[in-house]
């Protein structure tokens, strides 16, 4: 069973404005509202690909209730903790030529609610996969992902972490099965700027994270594809799918879901990388997260 954890779920409010003007009243051409937050996106795409999973995390207020209601309606299994105060954030995604994002801070997670999550995670069984994805609210310590992995280490769980900076860095000693930095995040960790056309340096930096504990390092590079350094030492490269970019929000999460679905289907890293790339591309070419038929169509082109 796969469990995703989203500490800071969101409603993603996507607005399209032709000529956005700062300081003026802008009217949008289109607006959409999606369930969001990285772990929730992973759950949605896994579900789309027919992989059973449950979405865990924290919700609050009427926005949190709306999130849960929508996820229930879409058949996603959820087991959220309802926070006593505040509201789940609304993240604004402004599309006007370029994409601009304003991500909310999110509600405070009190110690008792955090402990409630830990108790749910204690019930995971050997062979289960735990996906920790996205940022954490400012009220939490930066070592919270590390605390979770430390608590659960030795339990034969498969850890997947999609986060940036020290949140990611601190989990490396706990041997995560998969981490998925994009090339900018990888560069930040390695203390150097990385360009997608410098495959050799990207592979070197990914190997550096393996030396620090990660088992498989999947480096995504948006329209430039992806590179996977496997635990067996192989370096696999995959070009991106070709298509018109509509939306990059959730492409990385779709890639994580596609990779996990592909790996659970065939136990083969090359196929997992292809399905991950197809899912990431399919979301980039869709208005929201990709649907299964689109992922399958894109997969045929890779
Ligand atoms: N413009 C694009 N064209 C084709 N494929 C894309 C495009 N953008 C993203 N993808 C696919 O999705 C994968 C993940 O994208 P990206 O590297 O942007 O992840 P990310 O930075 O984690 O994104 P996000 O945080 O927005 O979810 C890429 O490796 C690629 O396969
Ligand atoms: O603020 P975080 O947790 O880093 O990112 C949150 C977020 O931008 O990530 C998802 C796309 O990956 C969106 O659904 C969501 O709004």
Automatic annotation (TrEMBL):
Name residues in a coiled coil.
Answer: none
- TM ranges: none
Q: Which UniProt keywords apply?
A: ATP-binding, Kinase, Lactose metabolism, Nucleotide-binding, Transferase
Among the GO molecular function terms of this UniProt record, one is:
1-phosphofructokinase activity
Keyword 4Fe-4S on this protein?
no
InterPro entries in the cross-refs: 1-PFruKinase, Carboh/pur_kinase_PfkB_CS, PfkB_dom, Ribokinase-like, Tagatose/fructose_Pkinase
Pathway(s) this gene product operates in, as recorded in its UniProt entry: Carbohydrate metabolism; D-tagatose 6-phosphate degradation; D-glyceraldehyde 3-phosphate and glycerone phosphate from D-tagatose 6-phosphate: step 1/2
E.C. number(s) listed in UniProt: 2.7.1.144
Q: Does the keyword Secreted apply?
A: no
Q: Which reaction does it catalyse?
A: D-tagatofuranose 6-phosphate + ATP = D-tagatofuranose 1,6-bisphosphate + ADP + H(+); beta-D-fructose 1-phosphate + ATP = beta-D-fructose 1,6-bisphosphate + ADP + H(+)
Domain named Carbohydrate kinase PfkB: which ranges? 14-288
NCBIfam families given in the database record: 1-PFK, pfkB
| Family note | Belongs to the carbohydrate kinase PfkB family. LacC subfamily. Belongs to the carbohydrate kinase pfkB family.
| Record's function text | Catalyzes the ATP-dependent phosphorylation of fructose-l-phosphate to fructose-l,6-bisphosphate.
Name of the protein described by the UniProt record: Tagatose-6-phosphate kinase
Q: In which organism is this protein found?
A: Yanshouia hominis
């Amino acid at each position: 069973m796969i469990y995703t954890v989203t500490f800071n779920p969101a409603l993603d409010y996507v607005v399209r404005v032709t000529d956005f003007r700062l300081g003026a009243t802008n009217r949008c051409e289109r607006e959409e509202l999606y369930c969001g937050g990285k772990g929730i996106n992973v759950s949605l795409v896994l579900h789309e690909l027919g992989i059973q999973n449950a979405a865990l995390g924290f919700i609050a207020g009427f926005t949190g209730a709306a999130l849960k209601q929508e996820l229930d309606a879409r058949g996603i299994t959820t087991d959220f903790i309802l926070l006593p105060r505040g509201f789940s954030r609304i993240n604004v995604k402004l599309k006007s030529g370029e994409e601009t994002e304003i991500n909310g801070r999110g509600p405070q997670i009190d110690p008792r609610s955090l402990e409630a999550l830990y108790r749910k995670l204690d019930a995971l069984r050997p062979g289960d996969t735990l996906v920790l994805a996205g940022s954490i609210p400012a009220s939490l310590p930066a070592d919270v992902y590390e605390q979770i992995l430390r608590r659960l280490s030795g339990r034969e769980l498969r850890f997947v972490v999609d986060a940036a900076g020290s949140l990611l860095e601190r989990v490396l000693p706990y041997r995560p099965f998969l981490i998925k930095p994009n090339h900018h995040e990888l560069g930040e960790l390695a203390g150097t700027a990385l360009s997608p056309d410098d495959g050799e340096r990207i592979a070197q930096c990914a190997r550096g994270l393996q030396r620090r504990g990660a088992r498989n390092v999947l480096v995504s590079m948006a329209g430039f594809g992806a590179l996977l350094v496997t635990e067996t030492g192989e370096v696999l490269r995959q070009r991106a799918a070709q298509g018109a970019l509509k939306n990059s929000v959730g492409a990385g999460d779709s890639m994580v879901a596609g990779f996990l679905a592909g790996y659970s289907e065939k136990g083969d890293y090359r196929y997992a990388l292809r399905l991950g790339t197809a899912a990431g591309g399919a979301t980039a070419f869709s208005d929201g997260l990709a649907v299964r038929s689109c992922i399958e169509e894109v997969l045929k082109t890779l």
